[in-house]
Write a structure and sequence with these properties.
about 25% strand; 12 helices; globular; about 30% helix; alpha+beta; about 400 residues; 7-stranded mixed sheet; 8-stranded mixed sheet
């Protein structure tokens, strides 16, 4: 509803003690951390995608049960000590395993070299066992294995945030109520950043509209910090090669290939990962450079959540052109065949947040009953899965103290 009020909740609409918008690494980690610390209230995670994972998800196909592609992050790294404490139960549960694939780099002349420090491939390297999505599925399993009701609602787009005297009402793009909650956490920045207006044509920034109704200086400061935060996009080519076409790729000495700055400038690619499938096919994920993605910010994959739920207009011609450019750049850089593969585009609008990030003292605004977690929170691991986990652990402690 445009005036900021919310319609009465229909009987079938649910309520929850805590709503977490976004079921990526941070959102799922927050649910797990709260449960493992003994909190027994009800939790609902509302996720725009079909399942958990966010940028650490594994793309699966309804039409092709054998396909599983880590389309955002092929691994995650931990660079500081002590490590996030949630890693230990994930390891013991068999949800994650070390990443042991060879990592090489490619220079601007097309020559292979040793791995470089790109911020994402140093330290201790991990991956989900059986797919990166297992990181978040493991966190949800930890949350659901404790006392208290935890539920994930996939394919759910929250468009409006309505503050209430006793919490929040969340509504869909038509203004219909989705959920009533006592406390609210945003584990991403979409609802708090002006890019939602620029990219999706929304008439307002949902969190800013909500904050304007609250008399909470801390929330207003958090809004300003989140709105000012920059980010880099990434346009990812998902190339699935049949067995015969995959053979020359399988012979490469690397599983993860980093592009040096000179190579990024020449080919517009940042990183390439090889992901063998169970039926002898091979998935190749080529991540674009920030400069390439910036030139194509308005081009989405037709099978993406942005295209299906966020109202992004289909642009078949533009999508095909971007896919062709990425495939050609990949073939030119590596001198390997790409023509036989099935192509998909995955465009991350805010793949990599830029410093300084949201300061820790703004993570929880008790007066408004709202909190924030994710890799855009300042601290160790900023901009990476490590930061998402650490921010969730820190917010869980703050929430537990506030609830007491």
């Amino acid at each position: 509803m445009a005036d900021g009020s919310a319609a009465p909740m229909a009987e079938q609409q649910r309520s929850s003690d805590l709503a977490i918008i976004g079921a990526g690494a941070a959102g799922c980690a927050l649910a797990a951390a709260l449960r493992l610390r003994g909190w027994g209230g009800s939790i609902q995670l509302l996720e725009i995608g079909r399942g958990p994972g966010g940028r650490a998800a594994t793309r699966r196909s309804r039409r092709d049960a054998g396909l599983a592609i880590n389309h955002g992050a092929p691994l995650f790294n931990i660079c500081s000590d002590p490590e996030p404490w949630l890693l230990d139960p994930l390891r013991r549960g068999g949800w994650i395993e070390p990443f042991n694939g060879a990592i090489h780099s490619l220079d601007g002349n097309g020559h292979l070299g040793p791995a470089i420090n790109d911020g994402f491939s140093s330290g201790r390297l991990w991956q989900g066992r059986g797919g990166m999505e297992q990181l978040c599925r493991g966190l949800l399993d930890l949350a659901q294995g404790q006392a208290g009701h935890t539920e994930l609602r996939g394919g759910c787009l929250v468009r409006q945030l309505h503050p209430q005297p006793d919490g929040w009402t969340l509504a869909d793009p038509e203004g219909q109520p989705l959920l009533q909650c006592r406390w609210l956490v945003l584990s991403g920045t979409l609802l708090a950043h002006p890019r939602c207006q620029r990219v999706f044509g929304w008439g307002d920034v949902p969190l800013h509209s909500a904050a304007a109704q609250q008399n909470d200086p801390q929330l207003l400061e958090a809004c300003g910090a989140l709105a000012a935060g920059g980010s880099q996009a990434s346009s990812n080519l998902l190339l699935t090669l049949p067995a015969e076409a995959a053979e020359p790729w399988r012979q490469q000495p690397w599983r993860l290939l980093q592009f040096t700055p000179a190579a990024q400038g020449r080919w517009g690619l940042r990183r390439v990962s090889l992901q063998p499938q169970g039926d002898q096919r091979l998935a190749v994920v080529a991540e674009s450079s920030a400069a390439f993605a910036e030139r194509h910010l308005d081009v989405y994959g037709s099978r993406s959540s942005a295209g299906q739920l966020l109202g992004a207009a289909p642009q078949a011609g533009a999508e095909a052109a971007v896919l062709e450019q990425l495939a050609q750049a990949l073939a030119d850089a590596l001198q390997l065949p790409t023509a036989a593969g099935d192509r998909q585009l995955m465009r991350w609008g805010a793949a990599f947040p830029q410093a300084p990030g949201l300061e820790a003292h703004l993570q929880l605004c008790p007066a408004s009953r709202i909190g924030f977690c994710g890799d855009a929170v300042a601290g160790n691991g900023f901009g990476r899965v490590e930061g998402a986990l650490r921010s969730a652990e820190a917010l869980a402690e703050r929430l537990l103290a506030a609830w007491r």
